[in-house]
Write a structure and sequence with these properties.
mainly beta; 3-stranded antiparallel beta sheet; single chain; 16 strands
């Protein structure tokens, strides 16, 4: 008895794919995996059909894992429109591969925010006088807006997310105070 072949091309399991390739693109970095299904008697092979003229990407023909093959050919900030095919093993006869569009976005590197001074010297501020000072000038991050938070410090000092430090010291608050603040770029980097 011959294995039963449903005589249809493989079907991709997702209706669409869209992968984001994170920073630090080295050979073998996996952007994502496409999967297709067919008769249990068929094996499926994957291939990049088009959309990668410089061969920056490769695909594992058995698993469907799309990976970086040549990082020097990647354009940072670009979106590659890869056409990926899935072909069955062809019990009986081969059918045309099923294809799907797989956009792969090559992300810009994300550097963490950086304090330009540590420690930052502010003041003096007169007792019983409200003060306000921006900490944004002491932090750089060319890629992302930065959010601030007060980690520790006197209870009469506050820090808003835009980096505005404010407070009203009383007479008994005279002296030097140390604060710890954090800066977050919203993409996983906090200093």
């Amino acid at each position: 008895t011959e294995p039963y072949d449903s005589n249809v091309a493989p079907a991709f399991q997702a209706s669409s794919y869209n992968f984001d390739l994170p920073e630090n693109h080295i050979i073998g970095t996996v952007a994502g995996i496409v999967t297709a299904s067919d008769s249990p008697f068929e094996s499926i092979r994957y291939a990049i059909v088009s959309g990668d003229p410089l061969h920056a990407f490769g695909i594992n023909p058995k698993s469907g894992a799309i990976f970086v093959a040549n990082p020097a050919n990647l354009d940072i900030g670009s979106v590659y429109q890869l056409q990926v095919g899935a072909q069955d093993s062809g019990h009986g006869r081969n059918f045309a591969p099923r294809e799907t569009l797989v956009p792969v976005t090559v992300s810009l590197p994300n550097d963490p925010p950086e304090f330009t001074a540590d420690p930052i010297q502010l003041g003096p501020f007169p007792a019983t006088q409200p003060f306000s000072r921006s900490l944004a000038e002491f932090v750089t991050d060319p890629e992302d807006p930065v959010g601030f938070a007060l980690v520790s410090g006197p209870s009469w000092i506050s820090l808003d997310p835009a980096g505005i430090l404010s407070g009203s010291p009383a007479y008994h608050d005279f002296g030097t105070h140390q604060l710890t603040v954090s800066a977050d770029d919203g993409r996983g980097h906090t200093v």
